[in-house]
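batch job 7 of whatever, protein = HTH araC/xylS-type domain-containing protein
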Amino acid sequence: MPASPFVCAALTRTLVAHAQGCGLPVNLLLQRAGIEPAQLHGQGQIPAAQVEQLLQECETAGAGDAFGCELVPGMATHSLQGLNILLDSAATVGDSLACFIRYLPLVTNCLLVSLEASSLHLRRYQHQPHHYMLDAAVLSLVRNIARRAGRTPAQMFTQVGVLPQQAAGRWLQDWGVAVVSGQWLSLQLAPGALELTLPGANAFLHQGMLRQWQGAGLAEVREDSLHLARHWLAAGDQPIERIAQRLGYRQPSNFIRAFRKQFGVTPKQFRLSGLQPA
């Protein structure tokens, strides 16, 4: 029996936080979508139909066309942080995309992803996702794939296909990427792009993250990255800011807060104390 479409609670929390930041009445919108506040906690799954209804309620309540496009930064720093660490540390663009295709279903199974030659395709699963979600998906992919390779979007993609109802086309064109209308999302990579070595490739980190993603949920992935941080703090003198960056934290303060919550001390206190990781 096919699995029911879902969106992980972490990604849904990011949607809710973005809606709240836009001044929308999130409590009312959640109620209309049939989502209980308790569903947003932890690492559970929320039926895709409820998330789609939430996005529809956001649109009805006045969220603009660019709502999904503006969601992208929050996805990178919050709900998809653990996945981004895994993808950033891969050896090549092709290896990174292989991990994305394999582990995206832990975040959501609303999109079926495939890599055919040099084209990355994202097709619907059972139903068509809201155009806000599609905008967030395509812009996140284009921006992050280019960032990982140390290139601009225009250097990495020769063409991107989007659906007619999407707003992402304007953003892609501003980035210098050619846009066409299609029946599903399609990202055409430039010749040789899949073989590009990632500047952030880190075999030790990547293998550690892979072990977690192969048999654990998102919470365990984040916890494992913090244990890697302890090893780096004890083994060398690289700046705490650099460690935070390597683990995918855009703000060192977020890394410091997560480390203290996990281990009871700040990274600086851990390093000064001479503690050794277990």
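notes: Residues 81-195 form one domain.
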